[in-house]
Amino acid sequence: MAERVVLAYSGGLDTSVGIGWLKDATGKEVVALAIDVGQSGEDMDLIRQRALDCGAVEAIVVDAKEEFASDYVVPALKANALYQKRYPLVSALSRPLIAKYLASTAKELGADSVAHGCTGKGNDQVRFEAAVAALAPELTSLAPVRDFALTRDKAIEYAALHNLPIAQSKKSPYSIDQNVYGRAVETGFLEDPWNAPIEDLYTYTQDPSIAREPTEVVVSFDQGVPVAIDGVAVTPLQAIEMMNLLAGNQGVGRIDIVEDRLVGIKSREVYEAPAGIALIAAHEELENMTVERDLARYKRGVESKWAELVYDGLWFSGLKRALDVFIDETQKHVTGDIRLKLHAGTAVVTGRKSGESLYDFNLATYDTGDTFDQSMAKGFIELWSLPSKISARRDLAGK
Amino acid sequence: MAERVVLAYSGGLDTSVGIGWLKDATGKEVVALAIDVGQSGEDMDLIRQRALDCGAVEAIVVDAKEEFASDYVVPALKANALYQKRYPLVSALSRPLIAKYLASTAKELGADSVAHGCTGKGNDQVRFEAAVAALAPELTSLAPVRDFALTRDKAIEYAALHNLPIAQSKKSPYSIDQNVYGRAVETGFLEDPWNAPIEDLYTYTQDPSIAREPTEVVVSFDQGVPVAIDGVAVTPLQAIEMMNLLAGNQGVGRIDIVEDRLVGIKSREVYEAPAGIALIAAHEELENMTVERDLARYKRGVESKWAELVYDGLWFSGLKRALDVFIDETQKHVTGDIRLKLHAGTAVVTGRKSGESLYDFNLATYDTGDTFDQSMAKGFIELWSLPSKISARRDLAGK
Amino acid sequence: MAERVVLAYSGGLDTSVGIGWLKDATGKEVVALAIDVGQSGEDMDLIRQRALDCGAVEAIVVDAKEEFASDYVVPALKANALYQKRYPLVSALSRPLIAKYLASTAKELGADSVAHGCTGKGNDQVRFEAAVAALAPELTSLAPVRDFALTRDKAIEYAALHNLPIAQSKKSPYSIDQNVYGRAVETGFLEDPWNAPIEDLYTYTQDPSIAREPTEVVVSFDQGVPVAIDGVAVTPLQAIEMMNLLAGNQGVGRIDIVEDRLVGIKSREVYEAPAGIALIAAHEELENMTVERDLARYKRGVESKWAELVYDGLWFSGLKRALDVFIDETQKHVTGDIRLKLHAGTAVVTGRKSGESLYDFNLATYDTGDTFDQSMAKGFIELWSLPSKISARRDLAGK
Amino acid sequence: MAERVVLAYSGGLDTSVGIGWLKDATGKEVVALAIDVGQSGEDMDLIRQRALDCGAVEAIVVDAKEEFASDYVVPALKANALYQKRYPLVSALSRPLIAKYLASTAKELGADSVAHGCTGKGNDQVRFEAAVAALAPELTSLAPVRDFALTRDKAIEYAALHNLPIAQSKKSPYSIDQNVYGRAVETGFLEDPWNAPIEDLYTYTQDPSIAREPTEVVVSFDQGVPVAIDGVAVTPLQAIEMMNLLAGNQGVGRIDIVEDRLVGIKSREVYEAPAGIALIAAHEELENMTVERDLARYKRGVESKWAELVYDGLWFSGLKRALDVFIDETQKHVTGDIRLKLHAGTAVVTGRKSGESLYDFNLATYDTGDTFDQSMAKGFIELWSLPSKISARRDLAGK
């Protein structure tokens, strides 16, 4: 039997042409693997057939939407994960899932290598290969676009020459990646960071500047996981899909930043993640109600580190796993309801209630019923200030 | 000469009555000190006269608006300081400044103690007293409201009995603190965290849900400090005042959170800080353009710590000072222009340019002219993944 | 039935006199509770009888040595816990355990309060009361020595007056606390930090400057827990006791530092913890063999925080619990053998081996058999250096 | 004029042969640059002549010992820099200094590239090249041993063939790097981490197990810098040299660890750094006396990061520079005397005094004269425990 390589197949130009390239360059049989993470767009059966038409010895489609939502997006929500405080890790979350299927498919089918269609200057190549290395260290990772220096022009030429069934009629000027959690758009005129984004870029969100009535929605969480919307029980996938609609229709979730890539350069990126931005706003405020101060403060540092690790392709690393158990421990009481007002690009919390709340009306109120013993404060302040006081005596001496 | 105490005087009921209370309880002469940090409201001369009418032996007014903006708000902007990721530290920034004047006035006038009007369950008592301890450790801090358990009812009764010139006609149901950087509102019906805020709470911001045309503005920074708005040079104070107007008119800067107080309880707070929210958004994105990745990542942890320290009343502590020099070092290249779109409660960056930019078009572009050597990525990924790969060999053995 | 208070009873002067004080001051019946955490010294039956003789309505002795070793010291070993990099938290570990028994005994016997014999300027008062607050928030904590300002002189006078059975013949000039994990010595001539410690202070360790033959010992760990010494299976308690002997006889584990107390002052402390210092040295090096780099680096920050929390009396806090699950996750592969050479005050690792090792001879060796692909390094360095390179182009321009 | 490359020249086999290799492979003229960082061994004039004899077009020797001590070791002392808590960064400190001279010499002599003799699996290649990239981004770095896959056997063969003046009579079984701050030894039988080090490895330290009289020495620091030893003023270089002698003669400063290399593997390393270990012990304890608690706690995290950055070759990075200004700020009061007892491999602080001390006898003492107000503690503990208490009420409800 010929050696085999399992290719992460998107149905687009690069990976379609990649099937032939891989065969030509390595002599291996190419298995095309298409993972449905809610990127919508084309029908997965069409994609499967195209892979075969392009020369794949086998083409496999996996519906991983529920798994993606539950096992990849939910941990990101628990972590309030926003790289550089802004980016909800849309693509960074799907790569380890796809890599997991690359590795398991390679094992099942006896392949000795896997492949992806990434270039050599982005983050996704690292995410794919680092994940594969952590799951199946014996596999080799191939990246035809990067390693054979194949440009887009060469791909179009190859497709024409071999009569590959890939429509090139309407080429997008942008590079786009999307899944149920969001969309990433880059290149084109955005490469000048002074240029403002235009409406044309967006698919998941409506123009926030158009006048609309606000939408009010109550999101319920159980131990950090969204479990109901306006009282209706939902799976994580449903929660994301519903919030994409509700928040997206109000223009919530657009992001435009200059971003620090793992490979050492800065790039300008535009994202849409309506559900992500709205759910994180809700989740953070529920934590404000239910998590102790010191734990909450420390968790914020853990969140940054978690987001950086996932951004940097280290989903399956030991540190990421250990941060996950920390975060899970913090979520034990993050249960309750958050009322959000969605409007004109904003997702604003307007109410929160929880049976697990640490907010204590009787301690907080200035009204009758106050149970806070104010006389304790004097001693607290005295000792709290003591180190500063002692050093002031030193530092001010003789001044 | 009788002993003296310098009281931080606001002109309101508690500190007006406090003049008499302090005299009665301690026998000291009371010097009233009113610091103008842009809280607007009453004329400072009226406040000065009221203090005298209430029995102060002396009443001093200091216009500290420029100093507040330059020496207290600007460091907070450089630190992108948002406690719990949300609160721009409005009151927390003014307390150390007021404490500084309490201490210096006490030294000048030979007073042996200072006083403030805070209760025993908030943060401000700590901020005042910790700052005084760090600046003038020999002074005693008095807090008549807290230490003599004086309630609002007793204050009203005292004012009536002594015929103090304080209007009580229209008592606000809320507890409010404000300065040029923002407003804090608490208590009242907000003590039920499920209740949404109402328009009535807000002064610095217009209702974001009313349809308006967006406002576009370009903010220029020099080493992290806002120095021009739409090309017109401004002082820090002017930058804050102008952005309060521009962003406030678009409903930008409203904040509603459950907050972890230093004294150990959670409280529900509503804030307005239009300039703060808009300027921090601009400043953060300019940092994304001009600060190296690793420095930017580390700075985010420093920012959290800085905000916690300032929230916790440790403005004059050694750690705060050392974080300041770190932050100043990070700002050396944070120079350039940010274009903001202000609309319906959002302050969105739509463009950035800088002579100090680390964004390199030729490295970032996927177009002709790309200078990034993609062949380097393979080696990078190999070593980047190596620890995970080695541990995978161990962890997966026998599985 | 009269109200009851449960007193943490040591058998010493302060808590013996405290029985009477508490009765006199509160009218409550006093239950004396003595916890054996391996402090050795007097027979626990004698202590029990003394409590009754001093007026306790009931006296209870609990042998908690195994529990202390397994549930309090072992987590500290996993955390390599050294406050200020030096102090193994000897007393800080026993306080939460004692507080746990105070709380459970109070619940069983229907007491409404607990008490301890600490003064008001140390850490232990905080550790007792914070632990009780976290375990039984309805209980009140009393501290007769602190709250009634009872000095040692008053205690001696009271004991004499009431003819309490407490020998005062040989008063130590030092304040001492000890348990199976170590000893703490303070006050006396040590209060001048220029004075060197003298041999007289030490009980658990021999003089390291006396010439002896080195001792070699192999400690085996299973998931971070010491399980065998020189191949003989041990419980955690036995591991500590044996290492106290072996390391103590070589003078290992003496510590002399100026320490930052939680109450805001610096104090000078001398400790002995032979087993602690030796086992942490062994455990750290086994981690070097078996834990991934990034996880190990992050864990070092967690260790510092863990030690600070425990030092600060927050054993039962939410953050401490969440750090524990993080640390436990890191220990899954910390299994193997460490050979220690104990000599003249040093515990030096001279060999390590582990079936879970991540040290890979074939990658590390410079000999034949090297499997490391050196050609990968060039690409790695290129991208690793890229942020510095890009900023250098900016920073050096025009210089 | 032919193109030129500046080679970091050690005088050893690899770089001597490297002169010819570089010429053969690149056609460039080779300038040999030997930096004296106190590695002792051969006379620098001999080394200079050997470079010329091996074909260098020019050979330059720079005495950088003082600069190394003052500008590279002193910052490491201020940072108490110990990678993995153990390794004082001996080689990691010299690389950026050598790289600085490589870059400046290349600029002066119009060279377009620099070169070093490192292999492709160690840290030093990264340190050289990352430093050069940060100082002279236009230069190319060459690594003949790594990039041309030149093994030791090939080097010996080449040297014989070309009759190069390099004695190979007594080849060390180890790979050694040394400078005035310490020595690093690796490979050979040490590659089995169960093997104990042998006396033969060590040069800077005497056998600690031989009985000797202890040595007592007082080290004085001024703002974190060692400035006197036993009252005699010293430069940083002199301080290191004297402490190497004093501590080395007592066997202080031997280190044996499994280390996490930047390139992703673990290696086993043996080091000697007598002055480093002794001076850091002294410096840390002086900080305990003179630095505020919160600043000291935060600095410990900064220290770890600093050591990791320097280990990882990022000496000239923006983050490293910003951490330096933080650390310098912490050192303003680190002035005073530390008495060390050096004996049998240990450097133990036995006394500390400082005009900048924050240790306050009157607050610390339990004797007459105590000025600590113990009544303050009750209020402190109440608020300190409040978050745990509130969450306990929730967590224990119904249990």
Automatic annotation (TrEMBL), chains A, B, C, D:
One GO BP annotation of this record: urea cycle
Keyword Cell membrane: no
Residues that hold ATP according to the record: A8, Y9, S10, G11, G12, L13, D14, T15, S16, G117
Cellular component terms per the entry's GO annotation: cytoplasm
Arginosuccinate synthase C-terminal domain boundaries: 174-390
Secretion signal, residue range per the UniProt entry: none
Domain (Arginosuccinate synthase-like N-terminal): residue spans on this chain: 4-165
Top-level lineage group: Bacteria
Residue sites binding L-citrulline per the record: Y87, N123, R127, S175, E259, Y271
Subcellular location per the Swiss-Prot or TrEMBL entry: Cytoplasm
Known pathway: Amino-acid biosynthesis; L-arginine biosynthesis; L-arginine from L-ornithine and carbamoyl phosphate: step 2/3
Enzyme class: ligase
Keywords of this entry: Amino-acid biosynthesis, Arginine biosynthesis, ATP-binding, Cytoplasm, Ligase, Nucleotide-binding
HAMAP family: Arg_succ_synth_type1 (MF_00005)
Subunit comment: Homotetramer.
Family: Belongs to the argininosuccinate synthase family. Type 1 subfamily.
Protein name per the record: Argininosuccinate synthase
